[in-house]
Amino acid sequence: MNILFIFYATLFFGATMAEPVEDKQALLDFIQNMHYSHIINWSQSSSVCREWTGVTCNIDQTRVIALRLPGAGMEGMIPPNTLSRLSAIQIISLRSNGLSGSFPSDLSKLVNLSSLYLQFNSFSGALPSDFSVWNNLTVVDLSNNRFNGSIPASISNLTHLTSLDLSNNSLSGGIPDIDVPSLQSVNLANNDLTGVLPRSLSRFPSSAFSGNNVSSESALPPPALPLQPPIPQPSRKPNVLSESAILGIVLSGCILGFAVIALMMVCSCSKKSVLPTKLQKDEVVLKRGSSESKDNRLVFFEGCSLAFDLEDLLRASAEVLGKGIFGATYKAAMEDATTLVVKRLTGVPVARKDFEQQMELIGSFKHPNVSELRAYYYSKDEKLTVCDYYEQGSVSALLHGNRGEGRIPLDWETRVKIALGAAKGIAYIHKQNGGKLVHGNIKATNVFLNSEGFGCISDIGLAALMSPMPPPVMRAAGYRAPEVTDSRKATHASDVYSFGVLLLELLTGKSAMNSTGGEEVIHLVRWVHSVVREEWTAEVFDVELLRYPNIEEEMVEMLQIGMNCVVRMPEQRPKMSDVVKMLEEVRRGNTENLPSFETTPTPSATDIASSSAPPQQ
Hints:
Number of helices: 14
Shape: globular
Strand content: 15-25%
Mean pLDDT: 77
Strand order of the largest sheet: 1-2-4-6-8-10-12
């Protein structure tokens, strides 16, 4: 009996305490030679498979198979001979950091690699010449870096490739013939590519090749003012993380019949702190850390009919909708078929009390043009907000998405209702908390359509909770007023400026900022000023609006309102409540049964240009 006890005990603890020693040391060598600003709880004394943030091991916990450290604040070059020692790794995600230098050549040793996410870093130089070494690759995302040189023809040897994104780099030369039947998504936009698009890629939309000088029937030359670089769209199919196997329970049920061993197993398993979760998409994983206490719970607001807890939310199937300056946004499908939007906030240095006070304030808002906050969650490591999901997507997606064949244009009536609804929502926000509340992040991706088709504002009041961003980062989106140098110190006037940019966006059909495919970036406000100043006002408006008759006066009047909102001096901008009145007057003034603007001349291009000076951005 004693011999059997020792045998089973040795088998049990040998399985549960297994550690991939060599992989663990490789990761320690990696992180110890990196600069990073976020807390990464890796140490020699803790379990790499059960406790380390961003690390996933195989079932028997003998090898590391995934490394996910998106947005960890890492800077500099990837240390050589570190990650390349993870010979069993299948997924590497180091996106949205500050990594630089050339592509790590020693990653060619990782023959089991299936997914590589290095987007939104500062890598430069040429791409690897031989992609054939990674014959298991299915996803490659190297977008939004500074890679140059040509696209290697060896990519066509990746027979399992499903998604390739090399957009927003400085790649040049021709596009190779990537004849891979499994390929479902390609994005090569905004590089310096030339020549004829290969027939093998002609099945993809022209937007995947915009911002280049390529020609084919499905890839037209870029327009005079190119649209904003396309935001990489995530796959519609959510990637679900299976629950971890609790080896102690399985082993005890199968091979241990002794009560004392079962008790030891329960005690051991009770120390595990990381909950299994399905709230993820590809490389993104949300975990609840060891700092969690009984007070860290999902908090619902009064009148909310939703019924689920944090564990239900973490088990929900999810896909990434986008990533902004405040964090990543997910579409979460609950088991009861409820669909919600979960925002995982990053860069929130405020204490629990301040966070909860702001959430309680926002959660009290009830207005048809303001997206209602349903719940929130606070812990040391995670801050979440839960809101309604809008099936039609954001105004940015409706206005700029799929600008090619098969697109359903956003008609004039819908654009007017978006502008009017958004204006009413912002005006309502400005009246709350004794007139002290500011939105701080008004943009097309934060505006949706409510059930009546009017604009609805989301992401309210989050700017006050975030760490300040340097001016170049803040102004990159094109919506920030020129006087705002600290994102936490936005004002009513700066909100009006941002709304003015949104209104110009609705009128022109162009993004707040447009890239020429190289280093030059065109600000929408500046461009509108330049066109109007030359008295080419008709050239301002979106060509998709030309099909609608008898709207010229409304468009010009709304252009006047937009220009008034984006004047350089904050004190010269109208109040948001006045903007609402002006928009309502435009509609009434152009309705047959109501008083008309016919007695008042329509503002000319010169009048508009002289009424405001272009801001210095």
